[in-house]
Write a structure and sequence with these properties.
Blueprint: E1 2-3, H1 7-33, H2 64-92, H3 104-115, H4 130-154, H5 160-165, H6 169-196, H7 200-207, E2 209-210, H8 216-219, H9 234-237, H10 249-252, H11 259-262, H12 270-283
Antiparallel strand pairs: 1-2
Length: 284
């Protein structure tokens, strides 16, 4: 198994899960206190469900003041955690896996065709496919919009310029609500696709480990199709047995040695005597 997600990515991911769930539930509870965007007696152009409250089981915080306390507390958790995550992927270089590449629209179309059974084989994707890249790239942008509109609602006087930038208090509240719906929609689609197409990514986001045969590309996986890990070719993972080549005995047995090559030549006894006699004559 190989590492897939750094511990910083895994920790910030799960902190975001808790923060977004609490903020969404408490935000709906705050919205239910006045489930409209127009002032009383006025109409709002872009929300046909004025006066309709969110289901109680989707809300969190119990009552308005409790929901506000939870909402503001999680606001700082989400903001700080988001900055840690963005700073890490920028410094660590993991932003390259999330930013849409050249040909993004073509790749996204091919991925959609595969999910709709209009293409038989899974497009090459790398760590994330084109649709995932688009969703993961959009999430921080929507998160930034949530934070900015939330600040405009929290301090409409002190940050009046920011509130005015979004069109006033009613419009800032509207954009805040729409951004929450968009983020919630992306999160729901993300969870559904993980559970029905790539459940092994839960392991990687928990432990950081991932096997290549688990990837949707290796399994040619669509929602609820080909969920089992891909079969592994034994030849690809088991090295072939090493069989030594036949050894030629002649290559290791030394050749016959010629005795004449190692026996010193016979010494002429007369040679040293002759040399001694010549030295004696010179002395005389």
């Amino acid at each position: 198994m190989r590492p897939r997600h750094h511990p910083v990515v895994r920790i910030t991911h799960w902190v975001n899960v808790v923060a977004v769930l609490v903020m969404a539930g408490s935000g709906l509870r705050i919205f239910n206190a006045y489930p409209a965007f127009a002032r009383k007696g006025e109409a709002f152009c872009c929300w046909p469900w004025e006066g309709m409250k969110a289901p109680a089981w989707l809300t969190f915080g119990g009552w308005l003041a409790g929901a506000r306390n939870w909402h503001f507390a999680m606001m700082w958790v989400l903001a700080v955690n988001g900055l840690v995550y963005l700073g890490f992927i920028w410094l660590h270089g993991e932003w390259r896996d999330l930013v849409p590449r050249r040909g993004f629209l073509r790749d996204a179309r091919e991925m959609a065709r595969f999910y709709l059974f209009a293409r038989p084989d899974h497009p090459r994707q790398g760590k994330h496919n084109a649709l995932q890249r688009g969703a993961y790239f959009a999430m921080p942008i929507i998160g930034a919009l949530l934070v900015l509109t939330g600040l405009a609602l929290w301090k409409p006087v002190q940050l009046g310029w920011l509130t005015a930038l979004f069109g006033g208090y009613a419009w800032a509240r509207y954009w805040h609500f729409v951004a929450m719906l968009l983020l919630g929609l992306l999160a729901v689609v993300h969870v559904v696709m993980v559970l029905t197409t790539d459940p092994y990514s839960i392991i990687s986001m928990t432990t950081g480990r991932y096997e290549e045969r688990w990837s949707p590309e290796a399994r040619n996986a669509r929602p609820l199709v080909n969920l089992r890990p891909a079969a592994v070719d034994p030849a690809a993972v088991v090295p072939a047995a090493v069989v030594p080549a036949a050894v030629d005995p002649a290559a290791v047995v030394p050749a016959a040695v010629d005795p004449a090559a190692v026996v010193p030549a016979a010494v002429d006894p007369a040679a040293p005597v002759a040399r001694h006699e010549s030295r004696g004559q010179e002395d005389r």
